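Batch job 17 of 40 flagged for manual review because the log was empty.
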Amino acid sequence: MKVLRLLILSAAVLPALWNCRGEEAPAPAREMGIYIEAPGDGLSRADVGDVPSTDEAENLLHDMKIWVFTSDGHEKIAALNIAQSQLPVAGRTRRYVVPVTREFAAQRPDVDVFVFANAEGIGSSLNTDSDWDTVNDAVFGPSAFGISIPTRSVDPTYGLPMTGVGRGLQIHLEEPVLRVETVRLVRAVSKVRFVFCRMQDDEQHDAISVDRITLNGGVIPWQEYLFNGSLPYAIAPGGYDPTPLVTEGPQTLAQNETPEKLVYAGQDAQSYQRLLSEAVANGLLTDAGTLYLRESDKMLSGYVSYTINGVSHTRNFTMANPGDFARNHTWTLFGYFLSGRNLQLAVNVQPWDYNLHHVDFSNQSVQATQFVVDDTTADVTEPEHDHFDVRLRAGVTAKGHLYITTPVSGKLMIRPIGDASSFIVSPDIADIDPTANSGRIDIDIRRNPDAEGDQTGKYITLSFTVESGEREIDANSEILNGKVYRFIL
C-alpha cells in the first residue's frame, strides 16, 4: 500500500516540477518522408510524347537543396543541403527524412516543398537560411541560358539547373511516419536541336550548304522564376531579349535516299528521337547543333539561310503554338532537301523526359521501369511498332532487366507464355527490395537443354505480376507499357 501511495504521489508531483522550472516536457520528434524524383532515362511507363535525354550530362546532379514551409504562414519546417552521395539517381526517386514535432504531426498542416539542384551553374545565392519569399521569388537570367552567351553544350561541371515545387501538399499519415506527395525535379531550361540532310545526288552534284539558322528576337525572356506557379511556364517581369540568335549551319550535308522517312509521323517520341540519333550515327543525317535556353511562353520562330550552287535562299519556320517552349521541353527542327533542290522544314516539340507520371509510394502500387533486352546477348528486331522479335543465339543466354521499387517486400512473378517447356526463364520469382541494387532485377532467357525434338521457331513472351500480401497485381502495363517481346529459338 505504501508503494502504491508513492507512485500516485510521484505522478502528481512530476508535472508540478516541470511547471516550477518554467518548462514543458519536450515533444518527441516524428519523421516526415519527402520524395524527390530526378529527371533522366529508364523510368517506368510514360505518355506518348515523352522523350528520353540523349546526353548523360543533361541528367547530372551535383548538388541539391530542399526547403519545407507551411503553406499558411510560410513557417520553415526544414531546409536540407543534400550531400552528393545522397543525391537521387537520374530517372529514379529518393526519400529524404525531415524530423517534425509531435504537435506538427498531430496538426498535419499543408506544406510547400521547394527543390533546387545544380545551383552553381546559374550563380544562385539561395541557401538553407533562405525564407519562403526569397525561395519562391528567386529568378535567373539574363546571362544564364540566354541569347547573349548561348549555351550550346552542357558543362558537366555544373549540369543544368533543375527545380521542383509542390505547393499546398497534404501530409499523409503512414504509421509510424508521415509523407507528402512526390515532388518532381525538372530542368528549368529547354532544348533546341537542329538536324539536316539532302537527297542522294549521284548525277547533278549540286552544291548545297546550310549557312545559318536564325532564331528571331523578342521570344526569350530576360529572366524566369526558378519555380513554376500555376502556369506551365514561369516568366518573370522584365520583357524579352530582342536580339536574334544565330547558329552557323553545316557546309556539308549527309545524303539520304529517303529523308522523308525521318519526318515525325505520329510515333511515340522515344522512337522518333531514337530514329534521328541512329540516322546521325549512320551518316544519314547531319547534327547541326543544340541550344539550351530559358523557357518561353511565346512561339519561337526564325529562318534558315542556305545556298544552292552559289545562289542564296531563306526559308522561315515557326512553332505551332505559344507555350510549346515551356521548360523541360525539346524542340527539333529537321530540314531536308528533296529533289529539285527544295528545302523542307519539319518542326516537332515534345516534353524532354520519359517520366511524366507521378509516383505513388503506397504499398498497394507497382512502381517499375520498362523491361529492357540487352541486344548484345540476342538478335533484336522490330517487325511491327512496339513488337520485338528476340532471337536467341546458339549457346548464348538472352538477358534483360528492369527496376522495381514498390510494393516493398512484395514478390515479382515472371511467367513465360507460349512454348514454355522449350525455355528456361530465371528467376521466376524475385523479391522487391529497392535497397538492393536500386531494385534492379536481371532476367535470363535460354533454351531448355532437356526439351526434346526440333525446337526451331518455338517462342515465348513474358508476363509480369506482383504478389503483395494476399493481393495479386498485374504489372504488365508498368513493365511492358504495351510492348511485346517474343523470344524465339
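Reviewer: the log was empty due to a logging misconfiguration, but the result itself is present. The helical segments are 2-20, 102-107, 132-136, 269-281, 476-479. Unflagging and moving on to job 18.
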